[in-house]
Write a structure and sequence with these properties.
It comes from Oryza glaberrima (African rice). The protein is mostly helical and 581 residues long. Helix content is 67%, strand content 2%. The protein has two domains: 223 residues, Growth Hormone, Chain: A, CATH 1.20.1250.20; 236 residues, MFS general substrate transporter like domains (Growth Hormone, Chain: A, Up-down Bundle). Helix 9 runs antiparallel to helix 18.
Length: 581
Amino acid sequence: MPSGSDSGSYDPLLALDDGMADGDVAAAAAAPVDHRGRPALRGATGGWRSALFIIAVEIAERFAFYGVSANLITYLTGSLGEGNAAAAAAINAWNGVSQLLPLLGGALADSWLGRYRTILLASLLYILGLAMLAFSTFISTGGNQCSSAAVAGGKTCPPSTLRVAFFYISLYMVAVAQGGHKPCVQAFGADQFDPSDPEESVSRSSFFNWWYFGMCGGTAVTLVFLSYVQDNIGWGLGFGIPCVVMACALAVFLLGTRTYRYYVSGSKKGVVARAGEALAAWRNRAKSIPLLPPASQECHPTATSAPEFSTGVEEDEQVVGKAGLVEQAKGIVRLFPIWATCLIYAVALAQSSTFFTKQAGTLDRRIGDHIQVPPAALQSFISITIVAIIPVYDRVIVPVARRYTGVPSGITMLQRIGAGMVLSLVSMVIAALVETRRLRAARDAGLVDKAGVPVPMSLWWMVPQYVLFGAADVFTMVGLQEFFYDQVPDKLRSLGLALYLSIFGVGSFISSALVSGIDRATAARGGSWFSNNLNRAHLDYFYWLIAALSALELLAYGYFAVTFKYKNKNKGALLATSTSC
């Protein structure tokens, strides 16, 4: 991390804060600086050279995160002895916290620490959490007496309270670390491209595609390699490898320090304080102006609007400041309909790492006579599909679409998000149909009450639903990242990406609530949809429910997407335009 010494590099954020008045910092905020706090030279800093360091860090971070999360349901239902519904609810709750904490991490980065320092501190916490997670697997179970009794009876001892507590503390440390890491790394990567430069502006739009390409390439390796290690060698090594990878990622991040472009916040007030002032100013303005002028007058105000402005220079500045706060508040609030109408998409996505994995574990997973595919490895088809489609999308589909639409990114961000939501809906329909067939195969083979015997149905039946989720992610996930980076106020971009992540946090909580509520309601009637014996469960009903909710969500999303006005009115992708009339 840049230090404050006179010789060598130092933290540009501290240098500017100490050496500039508020007005000077505000003036410098629009221009990036290098690691010494000097104006950043385009040829020496930023661009793809710096972005590649950051993409490498993200690949490693996703390797670590999915190394924990992808096969977590197997660990909870196996080593920790939890039931299917309880394990799924616990994972969804943890995922919810993981995806909501970036709101705090993004706020801290934008208002206090800066993105560079937030990434650094989060990486250190990540490494500590992963190391503790690996250590938790070596804590003994119920003691020697329990172990002897279990061995004699052919059963496994339940884990000790200490082991469970230590595991969950470690797991939530990883969630906190991800909350600081995730919103800042991508925003910091996009900061390496200047939107006012035509060439770098195009590169920044492409950056979001290749960012996701690299991230999913790393995830695919994780899901195949680590799930095999965890299922066949041991969970200690399975959790320890992500710790080592994360330590290497921190080293790579530090290597790029001298090449990065840094941006300094133009205000010393925190995000919470600025948001509070903005909402208060908006509320006061609404009270004082009962009727807003027609849209046609926004750019050409009539003479009757003149008395609203100050009669002196000092009052003019105050009004202008309040107007800026109002615009920041409106810039966040206007994104809420899009945010809200993407939540069921997140609920659907949550099933890929929970019930999809449990389903796969009941199927015939043999390849030849000696290889058995780990259930969690099927999730790699999501990443493989993304890796296969993104180059085609970026190099073929976008140029062709650009000719017909005139949009630099081929289609608008909201069109891209909507296309992915349609694919997600189709994926849930296919998942429901495949589960119906699996239940019929179990029934026909007389395996309804033999949960430990593989159902005579190949696991490849489940591949299409994973592939469709991967295709959906190419459109919706990348579109959401670009949308929430581009459409928030410029000074709140880390917070914007945190808002994007919060969709999946709230979606995970919704999924957890649905699973818990449905489990209680259906168990009371004699047969839970999420029975520990999946041959007696009804995951197909659950998937049909999600598909129906997705269809309703898609209708609402279509309405709000059509009526949404982009901050940059010439496109719906990343272009710098003036906000003046």
